[in-house]
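Inputs:
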Amino acid sequence: MPSPRFPIPQGTLDMLILQILSLEPAHGYGIAQRLEQISRSVVQVNQGSLYPALHRLEQKGWLRAEWKQSETGREAKFYSLTPAGRRQLTVEKDSWARLSGAVNLIFEEGSR
Amino acid sequence: MKQLFNWFRLRSLEGGLDRELQYHFDCRVADLTAAGIPEPDARRRVAVELGLAQVREEIRDVWLTRWFRDFLYDLRFSGRSFLRSPGFTAATLLSLALGIGATTAIYSLVDQVILHALPIHDPARLVLVDWDGDQVGGGFGSWNLMSYPICRDLQQQTRFFDGVLCRAEIQVNLSAGGDPKPVAAEIVSGSYFPVLGVSPALGRLIEDPDDAAPGAGPVVVLSNDFWQAEFGGAADIVGRKLLINQHPMTVVGVAVAAFHGVDIGAVPALWIPASMYAEAIPGAEDLLRRPTFWMQILARLRPDITPVQAQTGLQPWFKAWLQDNMLRPGFPVITDDRRRDYLASTLELTPAPQGHSPLRRSLSQPLWLLFAATGVLLGLACLNVAGLFLARGSARGREIATRLALGASRGRIGRQLLADSVLLALAGGVLGVAVAPFAIGALIAFLPKDFAASNLHGTLSLRLLVFTFFASLTAGLLSGLTPALHAGSGSLVSSLRERAGTGFGGVRLRKCIVTLQVALSLILLIGASLFVRTLAGLLAKGPGFETSGVLSFAIAPVQSGYSRAEAARLVRRLDEEVRALPTTLNSAAARVPFLTGGSWNNSITIETDRRVVTHLVNLNAVSPGFFSTLGIRILAGRDFDARDSRPVGEAGHRSAIVNEAFVRRYLAGRDPLGIHIGEGSGPDVKPDVVVVGVCAGFNYRDLRDDSEKAFFPIFEGEDAGATFYVKVRGAPEQAIPSIRRIVRQADPRLPILWFRTLGDQVNRSLTTERLLASLSSSFGALALLLSLIGLYGVMSFVVTRRTREIGIRLALGATGASAIRLVLRDAVTMIAGGIAIALPCVAALSKLVQSQLFGVTATDPAAVAVAALVLAAGALTAAFIPAWRASNVSPTDALRLE
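Outputs:
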């Protein structure tokens, strides 16, 4: 029986995080929830792998983090996109579009 | 870089991560309980979801990168394991500290003497301007001499130069109220400080107007050190009057503390403008206009010009200048041949960011040699540590095999071993740096000290620390590389099966290492024996004259305001009074001191049936009795006496004495007595000096000097002063007070420049030889020790491993002697291999050292044989101890071991 939710493809997590943060700053838990909502519970994100990804993106200078009061009233670490991160997102979206376009083309050709 | 920064704030990063994850955890648990799951279940589920420990590890890798983090763990692990085996740690640490300390100390001198640029504005653009060819004019001083007018004319060449300066090292009598005393000074053009870009610490420096015309600038600038030492850093020093050679001059300023002149080997106490040459250098004539060669010229190139461009660009101008220069007053009359040579002269520009220094010239080759020797020594220490690591690696064989079996990669284990050696080497480096200042201080103490102190110091500079860091790192990598590679090889199963402590342990590799060590230490030992033989040979040969019981002292009355005639009268009077002292056996005076490296030289024109002009001959003027005082034999003719001295003021000499070498080279087959000679080489030289005697050969400049020499009588009113040689009864030092009293009675304000026994003078002239001999011997001894330790270690190991085999042999009737032979055979192979490697290397290196040797060639069979014998004897002794232990193995014990 195929699983209704498939694991997130390798390497796309970073792009999704950047995409989510391009809308508004968020903390780790918020990003995890948003990921689930946006992907309508089709994509399964290992909650644990989210944090290494966030720290890696921060180290690369694409994200900036600051401690702020969250909606629950506790301090939470909010991530937001840096200009470099915004540029990176465009690059990744672009290459994703090209890749999926190319894959689609191959599939269509095959089905004809 | 970011990773390194992260490492320092690891604690705050960890705290932040904890808070962040805790927040996630709490929110998730709250959401789940809100959805109706009981809290304990929710907690468990979230913990599984997150995988906290795994997440933390992954994030730490992000912060520090995996490699760097592992390396830090490795270092921690190494540190702990070193603390567990203090004996091993001490042995390796000491080897590395010795190697690194010695290399650091020698490098410090190399850096200071050879490499270090002057502490001035943009030193890279500084060039030394020198004359390549026949200068024709006379001069005084040493190395790269130029005249003041050339400097002035070069200053017009603004196409190439931003500025040109000239300077000379001199010595003046300074009195600041008290008794005058000799101090080192630099006489400089007005452009000196502006061109170098040095600023004053107080007042102003010498400027162009001070040097505008002769006598224009009766001013001096003090060095910061001299101002502090002599005047206690008095704030009101500017404007004070000093007496320089009895002429009043005003202090106008103090230079910044970092600046010590352009010669690291001769630091001036003060600077005087060239315009004051007549006062600063008594007896000098018209130095600013005549083509007298006495200064060095340094120039600052324009930023866009290379030294080669400037040199090529200057030649046409210089050709024209050579023509013009012949019309100047004081240009000598010369032959056509000479004129051709003169006109073919060129200017030579060499980069001089380190300034000008005769010390560098004489020390750079010995220093590079010693630096190479310390490099070899450090290599030996690395090999020793590598051997010890291999030994330890075999003891740790099981640990490593277990780790491999548990899935550690071979690369990972190799890296662990590398971390061991790097940590050790860095610790050794720290130890080395700690002892380096003392070692450097001891090295500097070898160098002779005269009026001009050298600016060498034992303090650690940043450059030195960087050097030591890289030397240590290299040493660590080198010594860890073999064991690390070795750990990556070998069969896992067999090493696990072996019993602890009997691992193969790379015995073959360790034997190779010891062979290499033997070779390297033999090279150092041969070097040491060559330099020791050179020093011993020079000392045994001596200067060719009597040194025991002879005291020398010097005065320069002209610098205290005497005229030359008065100076000559004073010298004669002192000579007579010293001779009359009851402790004096004999006494004489000479114009130029012996064995100081310098000399007065000129060509000699010899008139026999034809006219012969000699090459440069070393000249001196001496008093009657000079040769007998120093025990130099007169081979033919007679010594000078009262007949030879002309009345003061009458120019020229009446008679001369030449040495054996002079006769052999220029008067072969003739009777030298009665031949006429003249000083100089021009057609205008009148050979009217009669040779009245021939003396035996002896050394003048230094102990290697065997040049042709000619002597004239002193006391003819040509001298600024004299050096006295007094042969005394008993210890020479005891005569000093009475001689001091005589000089004080003659003139209480006249300083004595130095008091020195001739034995001391001989020692001072052998500074470089002594430095090379003693350092190369200590390096050789250290090298020998290191390789013997290595050899001993390997042999003991071999014996332990073969205990059972030897036991069986002994049980089957082999004698103890045959067991010894069995073990020694191994050692002999390594020693012979080492010698076989070393000898071709020595032959290849011989050219590099030959110029530093005396009386031996670099491949001198005796020196090589002695070194090889010392090495072989030491090595066999080191190998004999384990061999003897092998012969004493009790067969029953050996078999029971199993």
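Remarks. The radius of gyration of chain B is 37 Å. The interface with chain A takes residues 2, 16-17, 19-21, 23-24, 26-28, 49-52, 54-55, 58-59, 61-63 of chain B (CB under 8 Å).
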